[in-house]
Amino acid sequence: MDWESARIAPPERDLVDLGSSDKALDHYRQLAQSPPARADLLRLYRLWYALAETAVYLMQFRAGHTADDNMVESWQNFLTFLPGRQGSVS
Q: What range defines the domain where residue 33 resides?
């Protein structure tokens, strides 16, 4: 959660962190006594997150670096954002 903008940004921005589970989103709706999350905004924020993560990884890989454990893990994380990969955003 980004507490600096809580209650300012649309709830869908932070709800993306719950994943795509309808059960989790329904539970949130019941607790918050709010209307269901908008699917179009959930998709927007999923895509925004994937784009932001991809940009950070690409900057990291383009800069001088060594193939240490951190870079290997970064590469594996980066691959999850590529189309056709498990976990990629659609």
A: 3-79
Q: Is residue 8 part of a domain?
A: yes
Q: What is the pLDDT at residue 3?
A: 63
Q: What is the domain count for the chain?
A: 1
Q: Can you read off the two tokens belonging to residue 19?
A: 């994943």
Provide the pLDDT for residue 29.
77
Q: Please answer whether residues 35 and 29 qualify as being in contact, where contact means their C-beta atoms are separated by less than 8 angstroms.
A: yes
Dihedrals phi, psi of 87, to nearest 5 degrees: 90, -5
Consecutive H or E run containing 49? helix 39-62
Residue 11 near residue 36, CB atoms below 8 Å:
no
pTM above 0.85, yes or no: no
CA distance 28 to 20: 12
For residue 26, count other CB atoms closer than 10 A to its CB.
12
Where b means 16+ CB within 10 Å and e means fewer, 42-72 reads beebbeeebeeeeeebeeeeeeeeeeeeeee
